[in-house]
Write a structure and sequence with these properties.
- With 215 residues, the protein is of the alpha/beta class.
- Helix content is 33%, strand content 20%.
- The protein is globular and about 45 Å long.
- The N and C termini lie close together (6 Å).
- This is Ribulose-phosphate 3-epimerase.
- Substrate binds at residues 7, 65, 141-144, 174-176.
- Belongs to the ribulose-phosphate 3-epimerase family.
- It comes from Taibaiella chishuiensis.
Length: 215
């Protein structure tokens, strides 16, 4: 049974409190928060004040995904804002191991995100030190994109690497997750499903989360 992490990027920003309440009532496990800076990705989303506000209302684990350059500058700030998991992109970190140590030093779980073009083997020397791999199954920056099929092969490769190294890292899939492909994604080895449009565009988001949870 996968962990379900609805992505707030697809929520109604005029009714954010209501949407957080809905996630609180649902069977969702985490709440996924995408932070974009307009530099690492061609979009700008939200930052620390929104996360701090969500944290005051949310009863779920806050899973924060930094799609930003120089994430190491803000690690302490995101800890103070309430992040439980903090994922940084391997492509944005010159000193990844140090950044992971900083995240752990602030009392958070450390995640590493990888883009669709980034090979799994680049995680070999960090996989034993992290708690989560956020595998992008679309190109980062925008919600509502289609799942890239090659991701299934990468999930299997990552699962093999985790097993081989004895890592405890969870595999999170972010992008294009639907009710139709969720079963295949979980069968390939995923632990956590990020779902944005699939949840928030559903006529009954709570029921949709229950369906995804039952995969």
């Amino acid at each position: 049974m996968p962990l379900i992490a609805p992505s707030l990027l697809s929520a109604n920003f005029l009714r954010l409190e209501e949407d957080v309440d809905m996630i609180n009532r649902s069977e969702a496990d985490w709440l996924h928060l995408d932070v974009m800076d307009g530099r690492f990705v061609p979009n700008i989303s939200f930052g620390l004040p929104v996360i701090a506000a969500v944290n005051r209302k949310a009863t779920k684990t806050l899973d924060v995904h930094l799609m930003i350059v120089e994430p190491e500058k803000y690690i302490s700030d995101f800890a103070k804002a309430g992040a439980h998991y903090l994922s940084v992109h391997i492509e944005a970190c010159n000193h990844l191991h140090r950044t992971v140590q900083m995240i752990h030093g602030e009392g958070m779980k450390a995640g590493v995100a990888i883009n669709p073009h980034t090979p799994v083997h680049l995680l070999k020397d960090i996989i034993a030190d992290i708690d989560l791999v956020c595998m992008m199954s679309v190109n980062p920056g925008f919600g509502g994109q289609k799942f890239i099929p090659h991701t299934l092969k990468k999930i299997a490769e990552l699962r093999a690497l985790i097993n081989e190294t004895g890592s405890k890292a969870l595999i999170e899939i972010d992008g294009g997750v639907t009710l139709e492909n969720a079963g295949t994604i979980v069968a390939a080895g995923a632990d956590v499903l990020v779902a944005g449009n699939t949840v928030f565009s559903a006529s009954d988001p709570v029921a949709m989360i229950s369906q995804l949870k039952a995969i």
